[in-house]
């Protein structure tokens, strides 16, 4: 066994990312010790996120994002293994679960966890933005999963993912056993194409296989990293452990955007562009020719381009996550408040006729293309800092005096909507020095 593959510690965030991009990304498993105190989330944030996930699971028609285990048996009655407000905190929840399932242990997995807590969302998107900037690539998607367990061996068994994985230890100690793809490539039903795909082999970790494993031992604050072509299984060392696992797909699937765009358009088409042929009469060639004409007609529909653009905008500003947080609570913006734009990675926009089509943090918006809002969108993309009153003064200066108050009220409301979508956020007023520097630069 290869024990605790630990990267060299770096004293600054810049050095940490430079070292990771140069020596570790896409190469082999390693334990990283970042020079920042909170990787993705704290125990208090995790507990709040779990309570939010519990509220969501009760909503009808919602995609199931929670898996719960006692021993290696998956439960259908998931809510009984979720944290409750009466647990008071994550430690209280873990204590309750350990007492209730002392024999076989318990395991909880909540998928798409980034959508459950604001601070975790912001740290996760910041982590991904830094990763993308340092590596110079555009990853193809992401997923953040919460794992809490006291089982000795992971309930998912030996498996591999389609993503490179960063596992942040929030509480407890965790061990990962890993093997290169080739070590298990001859196991049924593994195929050569599974190198970059998800695959599961179950509970096959016998003594012989374990003796060959690369072993990562991690403590709170550590980040374990392994590329997607490594098989792995987790172990708990000495007690319950809570981790946040961030999966990053290396390349975008552009065909997927086309599929999503055409699929949504197809749902609106009640009949195909030409009658469905009788295969017995036209034969295979005639049927295939009809299919080609049908596909050509669907792709030529001008709405496909718009749908692809919308889909790509939303995917881009969500960092490829399937789920994003709900809109932030409403808050009033006073003239003396300062706001800052979130930047181009989390905010993109297009003008279509008289409308501004916007995606912010994965949330779609449509606003009227008022000239002041067009200018504001550009400044949000530049992460500019703006005083609310100054923006409203400039925006209403050319309006007829009788209309200025009404326009001001409307624009303030639209600013509030942008704030709910996290396109802008309240910030402290800049100091006089920075204001002087900005005015000279302008």
Q: Which CATH first-tier class of the largest domain would you pick?
A: Mainly Beta
Choose one word for the global shape: globular
Q: Helix/strand-derived class?
A: alpha+beta
Q: Cα-atom Rg, whole angstroms?
A: 26 Å
Helix content: 25-40%
Question: Do you know the CATH topology of the largest domain?
Answer: Jelly Rolls
- Gap between N and C termini: 60 Å
Total domains, how many?
A: 3
The name of the CATH architecture of the largest domain is: Sandwich
Tell how many strands the DSSP assignment holds.
19
- Individual helix count: 12
User: Which segments are poorly predicted (pLDDT under 50) over 5 or more consecutive residues?
Assistant: 435-442
Fourth-tier CATH superfamily name of the largest domain: Cupin
**Main beta sheet, described?**
8 strands, antiparallel
Question: Please, what is the average pLDDT?
Answer: 88
Account of the protein in words:
36% of the residues lie in helices and 23% in strands. With 442 residues, the protein is of the alpha+beta class. The protein folds into 3 domains: 13-249, Cupin (Jelly Rolls, Sandwich), CATH 2.60.120.650; 254-314, no CATH class; 338-441. The strands form 5 sheets. It has an 8-stranded antiparallel β-sheet with strand order 1-11-7-13-5-4-2-3, with helices on one face. β15 (347-352) and β16 form a beta hairpin. The radius of gyration is 26 Å and the shape is globular. The N and C termini lie far apart (60 Å).
